[in-house]
Design brief:
Structural class: alpha+beta
Order of helices and strands: HHEEEEEHEEEEH
Number of helices: 4
Strand content: 25-35%
Oligomer: single chain
Helix content: 25-40%
Shape: globular
Distance between the termini: 36 Å
Length: about 190
């Protein structure tokens, strides 16, 4: 009986913590969306609302300048960021479109020099560097740390309509996702950051 009581108390505490995280997230979204401003900038000149044609034209120009490359199998765009991190990173991405316009940009990022013996280039270190990178690029913004259904930490940053989530995928890779919350809200997509 003692163990059952202990177990039930822990479940109530954990559920309470998850509810607080969800409540904080909902409050953050309400506060940011009430600003009635837009933040559409993503990476390397990409922005929410670009049409597929604009996206492909932009990628072709960036490719000619040696900044964007095709991934194996041409399933994603790959770029390299050299100067913003302690070691060069590789970013692979391909946007999601609604009504022919970018509303979400998921990306996978990792240090190019990652190796099992380079502990300072593991995904944990990259998550910390990404948080600093976005603060430098977009300015300070509210940041929440939540737990997804797989018990992974998710860092959530919201600037007006732009939500940026950062999640460690594994020891090597980190997932970043930019989402236009106004479009997500209109299409009744999942309003949670994971």
């Amino acid at each position: 009986m003692k163990y059952i009581s202990f177990f039930l108390i822990n479940i109530f505490i954990l559920n309470g913590c998850k509810n607080d995280g969800t409540l904080n997230y909902q409050k953050l979204i309400e506060t940011e969306l009430s600003k009635n401003s837009r933040e559409d900038e993503l990476l390397y000149g990409l922005r929410f609302g670009m049409t597929k044609e604009e996206f492909y034209d932009h990628c072709r120009r960036m490719n000619k300048n040696g900044l964007f490359f095709n991934s194996a199998g041409n399933a994603a765009v790959v770029c390299r960021i050299q100067d913003e991190f302690k070691s060069p990173v590789k970013v692979s991405f391909y946007p999601e479109f609604i009504d022919n316009k970018i509303y979400k940009l998921p990306a996978i990022i990792n240090y190019e020099a990652f190796a099992p013996w380079n502990k300072n280039l593991f995904a944990d270190s990259l998550v910390a560097d990404l948080l600093q990178f976005f603060n430098k690029k977009f300015g300070q913004a509210p940041l929440l740390q939540m737990t997804d259904p797989n018990n992974k930490n998710v860092f959530v940053r919201v600037d007006a309509n732009r939500r940026i989530t950062i999640t460690k995928k594994d020891e090597r890779e980190t997932i970043i996702e930019f989402t236009d919350l106004l479009i997500e809200k209109k299409t009744s997509k999942n309003a949670q950051p994971f």
